[in-house]
Amino acid sequence: MIRVVLADDHTILRDEIRSLLAREAGIEIVGQASNGLLLLEVLAETPTDVVVLDLHMPAMDGLTAIRFIRQQFPQVRVLVLSMLDHEYYAARALEAGALGYALKSSPLREIVHAIHTVHQNVLFLCTEIGLRLVDRLTHGTGASTSIKGKEPFPIIQKQNQEPPIVGLPLGTRTNLNP
After folding, report:
1. In the predicted model, is pLDDT for residue 150 greater than 50?
2. Which residues contact 48 (CB under 8 A, 6 or more apart)?
3. Is pLDDT above 80 for 175?
4. Under a CB-based contact definition with an 8 Å cutoff, are residues 124 and 101 in contact?
5. DSSP symbol at 106
6. Where are the alpha helices (DSSP H) in 56-148?
7. Which of 2, 5, 67, 75 sits 20 to 30 Å CA-CA off 116?
8. Can you list the domains of the chain with their CATH numbers?
9. 116 with 125: CB under 8 angstroms?
């Protein structure tokens, strides 16, 4: 059984995700939080395998929460579930320590697959973001790696350099290369 904690500041969305995931075999919702600070309190009191969190939350945003989770609860895997469909945000989340990134518009089966995947310490990117990132990394094409007013994410800064080697924790597999 995968013990999951949900963190999102929208109660109705959190309740709906909980309701949908409660029907899935092998997944148990063990806690909820409306912001990053409350999430850390829940994690301190509740054995958890996977956190599913939004990036935009009050009190402590998702990226900051991910960094704290990696430091204080290194055994907990983090899956970001966001409405932000730009690969910039996915890259920032992975850089902070998340193991997966899915969109709130993803089908339920993809979100369930994402939870199972990150639980196994395997990198997960939803299809839409994953294809754009792979295209960008392998061909230097596709969607932009930066957003106006934001710096480009670090794995793609110079066009005329050798392809980057993206390191993953030892023993980590990806859903792109199982």
Report:
1. yes
2. 3, 4, 5, 30, 31, 42, 73, 76
3. no
4. yes
5. S
6. 62-72, 87-96, 108-119, 127-139
7. 67
8. 2-174 (3.40.50.2300)
9. no
Whether residue 177 is predicted with pLDDT greater than 90 in this model: the reply is no
- CB contact set of 146 (below 8 Å; sequence gap of 6+): 88, 152, 153
pLDDT, residue 57, reads 93
CB 62 within 8 A of CB 93: yes
pLDDT in tens, 18-64: 999 999 999 999 999 999 999 999 999 999 999 999 999 999 999 99
Straight-line distance from the first to the last Cα atom of the chain, in angstroms, rounded to the nearest whole number: 22
Distance separating alpha carbons of residues 62 and 119, to the nearest angstrom: 19
Please check whether residue 100 is in contact with residue 124, taking contact to mean a CB–CB distance below 8 angstroms.
yes
Q: Is 50 exposed, middle or buried (0-12, 13-18, 19+ CB in 10 A)?
A: buried
Q: Please enumerate in sequence order all residues whose Cβ is within 8 A of that of 10, keeping only pairs 6 or more positions apart, or say none.
A: 54
pLDDT of residue 170: 42
Q: What is the pTM of this model?
A: 0.79
In angstroms, the CA 74 to CA 22 distance is 25
User: For residue 3, which of 35, 27, 39 has the smallest C-alpha distance?
Assistant: 27
